[in-house]
Amino acid sequence: MTNNAATDDRDAGLAAQYEAYPYPERNPQDEARRLLIGSPSHLREIDYWVFGAQRPRSQPLRVLVAGCGTGDGAIMLATQLARVARPAEVICLDRSTKALAIAEARALVRSLENIRFIQGSLTEMETLDLGLFDYIDCCGVLHHLPDPASALQSLERHLAPQGGMGLMVYAPYGRTGVYMLQDALAKLAPFTQSPEERLDVARRVMRTLPATAWLRQNGNFGDHLSGGDAGLYDLLLNPRDRSYTITEFLSLLDQTGLEPAALMEPARYNPGLFLPDPRLRARIAVLPWQEQAAIAEDLAGNMATHVAYVVRKDAKPKKPDPLAPDAVPIMREIPGAELAKQMTPDNMLPFHFGTLVVPIPLPPQARGILPLIDGERTVRELAAILATRGVSAEKFRHVWRESFDILERLNRVLLRAPA
């Protein structure tokens, strides 16, 4: 079989998979009781990490979700935009009719009017005449394509000036056990068989999987346990599934004219957080940030994905000044009062980087500042409130700078975009 034929067979298998088992498995009626939240494509993250909290909220936002699947990212972003009456259009592109139908049904339950659905492949973007986009989401897609670099270059050509993307690709170490089982199942259930036949084989293998299998030891994901047929199939039977170390991911971005505005969460890629030895931290501090990120991945061992907000090379937005009196801090999702409650008596914030919990030290005054952050108060107003509690202006600036720097890198406190 030639490489082209193999690629065609794999692509046909991939298309058949998502028609038989649209991923992720979702019930549209669940939209009446919950909104799934994640990264990339959280509205407050886009405002901050892609646009540097400089793009006015009143400016219309044109969004492409390239490979939307059953719609998690698209529904989240469209809902967040609708809730605050932001002018926007979210276009969902996917080649699976079944997946699009589920995403559309989810939007209907939510009465979303800022979203539309187009059947098509992101590998054929040039023929779809969709125009330019301020923001493009491509989450969990590139690693299934025959030529990820070419697809990413095509998406880059559809970015408006100063636009950016939210990307997610699989990472190898946190998925230890997955690729071993994929190799075994590729022999037991070749991708040329029907999806139903392949799933039956996978179920049989999972019922008697040896206790020593690495997949049994890996708690970094749960698709095979709680993701239904679609989750099991996508994890273990996907006809084309590659992973990227952070070094390989950064290389992919570089060759397509892109660079990260932020890796999510930025602190996750700082190995100094979980290496408290002063000598080690000193050695880490002098290394290029790319090497630091690689060390963090090597040591943590639990990164199952890499999520990044990316922009064109040399177009990274200037970071806004958190000390600017008119800057408005905003909690990414967890209310400030709740985050303050998570602090221990010795002013540590236990932070979960997936399955790794790291104690993050915060200034004692952060416990009092966090509940004041409501997305409306300015830094000037926060300082005034702290002044009534005996905190001088100079002390506030020092404490706020330190608190913001830590919590921003944890992606918990950001700055609000202007009106």
From TrEMBL:
Signal peptide start-end: none
EC number of the protein: 2.1.1.-
Top-rank lineage group of the source organism: Bacteria
Keyword tags: Methyltransferase, S-adenosyl-L-methionine, Transferase
Methyltransferase among keywords: yes
SUPFAM superfamilies: S-adenosyl-L-methionine-dependent methyltransferases (SSF53335)
Domain called Methyltransferase: residue spans: 61-165
CDD domains hit by this protein: AdoMet_MTases (cd02440)
A Pfam family assignment: Methyltransf_31
UniProt KW Glycoprotein keyword: no
InterPro entries: Methyltranfer_dom, SAM-dependent_MTases_sf
GO terms, biological process: methylation
Transmembrane intervals: none
An MF annotation (GO) of this entry: methyltransferase activity
Name used for this protein in its record: Methyltransferase domain-containing protein
Phylogenetic classification of the source organism: Bacteria, Pseudomonadati, Pseudomonadota, Alphaproteobacteria, Acetobacterales
